[in-house]
Structure formats: structure tokens, C-alpha cells
Amino acid sequence: MTKSENNSKDSTTSTTNIPVINVSPNINATNKEKHNYFLNTVPSKSRKSSTIESEAKILFKDTINLSQKSTSINNDNEEVFSDQSDNQVDVDELPQLVTCESRTSSHSKSLTENEHFIYLKHEKYHKDKGIAGILTRPKSALTNNRKGILLLHGHSGHKDQCCLPLINAKLGSMGYYVLRIDFRGLGDSEENADPSVGRTIQQDIEDIETCYLFFRNICNVKLDAIVAHSRAVISMFQFVIDRLQPCYHDFISNLFNCSGRYVSNELITKVQEKAPNWYKDKGYYCKAYRMGKLTDVFIPMSETLSAASIDVTQFTQIDSRTFIFSIYGGKEDIMPLSYATQYADLFGSRRHKLEIIPNADHCFYGLANDPNIYGLPIRKGKVNYNYLVVNYVADFLSEENQMNLFNSMNKYIENDIYPPSFRWPLPFEYSNVSNFRDIGGYKLSDDNIKRVKSNIFYRCANPSKITKRGLEYLTETLHVRKIFDLRSDAEREKTGIIDCEKVNVVHLNFKQDMDLEDIALHYQGMLLSPLNFPQAYMIVLKKSLNCIREFFQYLLSTDLEEEGISVVFHCTAGKDRTGILCMLLLKILNVDDETICNEYSLTTIGLKTETDLIDSIMERDEQYYVNVLGEAHYNKYISKKDITPLQMNKNVLSSNYLAMRIFIEDFEKEFGGIESFFIEHLHLSMRDIELLRSRYTC
After folding, report:
1. Among 577, 582, 539, 562, which residue's Cα sits nearest to residue 698?
2. What's the predicted TM-score (pTM) here?
């Protein structure tokens, strides 16, 4: 509630033309229908946005050179350029580092073509318009990485506070769907459910859940990360363990804790210091933005007690697939800096990273007259360290770092039945086999405890040149007795197969039924872009049904664990055909799509040692592809595209997350789900599927 009725009336903002999106559309709608609903609700055109204060909209280049001078906007919307000594310099001296556009308040700024001011409404939680947000969409299909990011502000904050707009701009340029919101009772969102109770943690959880459903049901993308500041950190963690995991059996890969509170009951002491009559008055007033105006907002005692009664030790229950990144200012002025190390101790080094920005305060601004050693923008006379926060977040979410992080978190396979084992049990230096890894140990999407059994399924590149000691380890320690070779006859003849009496090599030619047109379309998919891989993979999949059926029939006919044996499947690089079969196996065992896509990307690491194969592919010129496809097919599918042989070769060798993500989406559309595929196309029964799951998960 506000201090005066006049303030409340003056701050009311018209929202007539702002779309209100119901996050619970028809549950029977297809993914395409859901996405069309989203596109029709939020057309791709400029809209007016409510922005709370004068800020700079930053458009970053790929990297920020912190040794260079930068730009910011001061209170009067005058550009201020600063170097290490804070001297003003001419704009022409600056590198093409950032460009700035002045923001004005209350719906007067037109957003870019890919930004939209929207309201999200949950029928159960929201009484009026719902929660206000600014959504940034990828500019094109080529930049869309199928992931969403949610940005959350702290106590008495708003969607344009401190680092949130900067993170929004950067991650939007990286291909994410980015949504930053106002919690109820703040910014442009509707009033609290009960103004006398205020903004409770439970209410925050409902608002976050609404955003989660928006990404899942409307945008049809995976919510990959939440970046939360201050009070919202507790709400973020509580949402995960109270709502996301038990109700949706889902997890979020990355959670960012920016200046979050650890000892929750110390909040009461902090409030009493600022408002000595807090208990008597049953609350206190503070300044906050409502509908574009700075207003006196009453914070009821119940709102404070809600945030002060959280047991943070329960956050250890957050899914082990989630990584937590904590960022704090070294000059933290709101809460003890010890909270940073307490969170580090709580989550452990395996899945937690901590960065402390030496001279930054709670909102990541410097102290007055701080030396600007990085040449960062100046805001209100203070160094704006929010730019460093943006860099930390963006670098952490980069494709390469996420791949390495997944590899690091899954380096060892642990469960309650078997002793820990290595994800990569047969190093190239020892065996002369590349890309050899165990695909067990991954959690099931519908069960937070059960996993795929380890020490049973291995994938790799061509193992024909395995060393003597590598072969001995393969058979005597890993107990491999069956190898499924997915290569063609020509490939096998050219590079050979394993010759060992203890191992039965089964030839499953995944490309044997492909005609010339199939081959041409397959190469087109592999050569033009990793985003076209799904086209190639779908052709291989449809032409390999008999081989795939034979593989799974063997798993049904033989209980590998009971027999004490394991299997290997491979192609040439252990990437494409092997990746398709691995996807089918993990998916039928109920491993989540996120893990499957990350597992696929590990081939980028595994193939680094396959230098002979890499060299042979990188030497291919245009004539090579003309000879393989034939001149007519090459001219039809390749030559008219603006791509060089060098880029085509690089594409063939790639194994990025997004290629598998798109393939899984196409697979779901084509076959109606993994169970439908197994029943209708592999001619296996539901009983067979249940046997696979009971036999190979634990």
C-alpha cells in the first residue's frame, strides 16, 4: 500500500495496448500451436516499454576489453566517457565497444524489434494484469539457441535495476530468450495478492513459476538460467526446491546468486536498525518505483518475516545437475561478505563458483572517487561494476564453458550400487582410441534418485587401432564382449576392425539403405551448418530402423549386468551415427533432453585426439564433395550456398549442443515421442520398453 492516495493515482500507467499472456494455454496443443500462440500474442514489432529510471541500453561486442575506455549515461542523460583517471575524452577516441541509447521513463521509450513489454498472468495467482516484464527474443532462427534466461530483482527493486538491463542486452545478443520482470507490488506489475501481507517469498515463488511456465508452455524453450539479485536469491532457490523439482520434475542448469542473503534471520536486525519502530508500526516505509514513479511503499512486517524465516541449508537439496555461481561485491554494504563463502561451503566446489568484485557494493557500484582501473562506465560519480557482472554471466553461459562445466561435473560417475567410475575410462594416450566414454550415471528425468546404470554402455570413435594394453583393459576391466560397428562396408574395409577372440563385433550399417538423393540431402545437412544436422540425422535414422531394432533386441535378449558384460557402439568419429543411437538409448531410459544434448557435445572434447581423421577431413576441397555427391547433386544442394569447403569441413567435425536439441525437437514432431517411435517403428512393445528401463536403470 502507498503512503498517500494521490501518489497511487498519479503513478497509474495505461496498459491498454500491452499484451497479457496466459501462461496456461490448452495443454493438448502441440508445441507448434503453443509457439504460434506466443508469436501471435507478441508480434515482432516495436512496442513501448515502461522503464523505471534513466539507464543506458548497452549493445556489446563479442568481448569487452576492460583496458579500453567506456561510456555510460549520467543522471542528466549526458554521455560521460571515462578512462582510468576519470578524465573526459572525445567520443571519436573510443573503440567500437558499446553504443548507448538514453532511456526515459514510463512507456516513452520504443524498444528494439526483438524486445516486447508484456504482462504474464497465471489464472490461479493473478487477479489483474499479472506481472510485467520485458522479453527479448533471438533475432533469427540462426541465433536462437532454444534457451531462456530469467532475471530477478531484489527488495523494493524493479526490472531495470543495476545489472539486469545490461545482462539482458548481452544474453539477448547471444541468442537467448531473456525475460526480466517486476515482482508483484513493484514496478509495473499488479498489486500484491494481499497488500496487508506484502511481497512474501511464497508470492515470489508463484511469480517465478509463472515465468517458468511462460518459457516452457509458450516460448517452448528450456529455462536454462536464473540470475537473481539480493532478496530474489532466496526466492529463486526456494522456487527450485518447493515447486520446480517436486511439481515439474525439472531442473535449471545455472543459478546465479548476486549478493544473496545467507543467514535469513539477520534481516530482522537490519530492518530494526533502519526502522526502530518497525515492530510497533507492523512494518516500515521505503522508496520504490511503481508505474514509473518513485513512491513511498509500505513493507508489512509479514513480508520481512517471510524472508527472514528461510532455512538456507535446505538448498543443498537442489538437483545435483545444477551449478551455482555466486557474485558479490568486496565492499558489500547491505549484508556481511561472509555470506559469499558460506554459500561456497554450502554447495561445495564441485558445483559452485564464487567471484568477488573487490571495490563493488551490494548493487555492484563503486565507492565515491574509486580509481577506475578497468575504465568502466561511471554512473552518478561511481564506477559501474555491473559491466563486470555481465561479463562473468556471459562467459559462464558460453557454449564452450557450459560444455566444459558439464564434463567437469560428470567426470566421475557415482551411485549407491557401484563404486565411483570414470566417465572417460580409456584415455587415448593409453589406448589409442578417441572419444571413449561411459554413458551411464545420468539421472532420469522422472526420478531424482534413479540413474542409468554405469559400466555397461560405452561409445567411442573407431577403435580398430587400439593398443594391446588398451584392448586388455577393454576386455578384462571393462568386460566388453560385444561391439556394434555402425560404419559402412567401405569404411570398415578402409580403416579395419578390432580383431579379438573375446569380443564379438556386430556390423550394423546405418547408411546401407540410403539412395543417391538421400546421400545428397544427408551431405547438405552435414555441410551447410550444424543447425542442418537434424536433416541429416533424420535421414540416417529412418534408413537405419532395422539396425536400431537389432541393437535394442540384443539388450532385451541379454541382461548385460547379470552376465557381467558391457557393450560398445561406434562409427568413425563416434559423433553422428553413434550420437543418434546414444540419444535413442538415453531417451528411452528417461534421461532428460538437456543432459542428452550436453552428452552429445562432449564429442567436441573426445575428438581432439583424433588428429588423423581431423586432418583428412580438413584437407577436403570442393572437388572432393563434387566426386562424392556427383556434379548434379552438388550443384543442386551445395554450390549455390555461400559457403567455402573449409567451413563445410569445420561443420562436419562439429558437435554442438544445439544440433542435438533441434534434432530431438524434430524427432518428437515426426514420431510423437520416444515410446511411440519404439512401438510403431521398431515394433517393440510397452512391456519391452519397461524391461529396458528396469534392467538398465537403478
Report:
1. 562
2. 0.84
Name the strand (E) or helix (H) holding 421: strand 421-422
Band of residue 581 on the pLDDT scale cut at 50, 70, 90: very high
Alpha-carbon distance of 90 to 110, in angstroms, equals 28
In which band, very low, low, confident or very high, does the pLDDT at 414 lie, cut at 50, 70 and 90?
confident
Cα(657)–Cα(290) distance, integer angstroms: 41
What is the Cα–Cα distance from 432 to 629, expressed in whole angstroms?
32
Indicate whether 89 pLDDT > 60: no
Residue spans per domain, the chain: 5-397, 404-696
Tell me whether domains 5-397 and 404-696 share a fold.
no
Task: State the CB neighbour count (10 A cutoff) for residue 330.
Answer: 13
Cell of 54: 534513466
Classify residue 249 as left (phi > 0), alpha (psi -120 to 50) or beta: left
Is there a contact between 299 and 268 (Cβ–Cβ < 8 Å)?
no
Condensed to tens digits (0 to 9), the pLDDT of residues 118-131 reads: 999 998 999 999 99
List, for residues 40-62, the tens digit of each pLDDT value: 655 544 333 332 222 222 222 22
Task: Write out the three cell numbers for 42.
Answer: 507478441
Selected from 3.40.50.2000, 3.10.560.10, 3.90.190.10, 3.40.50.10490, the CATH number assigned to the domain covering 404-696 reads 3.90.190.10
Q: Are the C-beta atoms of 100 and 79 separated by less than 8 Å?
A: yes
pLDDT per position as a tens digit, 154-182: 999 999 988 999 999 999 999 999 999 99
Cite the beta strand spans of 40-129 per DSSP E: 48-49, 59-60, 70-73, 79-82, 98-99, 109-110, 115-121
**H-assigned helices in 362-457:** 386-396, 399-409, 428-431
Cell of 43: 508480434
Which residues pair with residue 265 across a beta bridge?
A: none
Please state which CATH number belongs to domain 5-397.
Answer: 3.40.50.1820
What CA–CA distance (Å, rounded) separates 560 from 504?
14
Give the residue among 285, 233, 287 at the shortest CA–CA distance from 52: 287
Three-point CA angle 420, 422, 425, nearest 5°: 140
**What are the angstrom distances between the C-alpha of 420 and each of 158, 405, 413, 416, 695?**
46, 19, 5, 9, 20
Between CA 393 and CA 174 the distance in angstroms is: 12
Instruction: Output the 3-class SS for 574-603.
Output: CCCHHHHHHHHHHHHCCECHHHHHHHHHCH
* Cα–Cα dist 313/583, whole Å: 36
- pLDDT tens, residue by residue, 647-662: 999 999 999 999 999 9
Give me the half-sphere count of Cα atoms (radius 13 Å) on the Cβ side of residue 509: 10
Cα 274 → chain centroid: 39
Q: Using CA atoms, how far apart are residues 577 and 540, in angstroms rounded to an integer?
A: 8
- Is the Cβ–Cβ distance between 485 and 505 less than 8 Å? yes
Max Cα-Cα span within the chain: 89
In sequence order, which residues have a C-beta less than 8 Å from that of residue 229 and are 6 or more positions away? 152, 153, 154, 157, 161, 162, 163, 164, 258, 259, 260, 363
In the block, which residue shows the cell 548476486? 258
Report residue 25's pLDDT band, with 50, 70 and 90 as the boundaries: low
Angle formed at CA 33 by CA 27 and CA 35, multiple of 5 degrees: 100
- Cα separation, 218 vs 37, in Å, equals 7
Q: Give the Cα separation of 485 and 571 in Å (integer).
A: 6
Contact 150, 179 (CB under 8 A): yes
309, 314, 318, 323 alpha-carbon torsion, rounded to 10°: 80
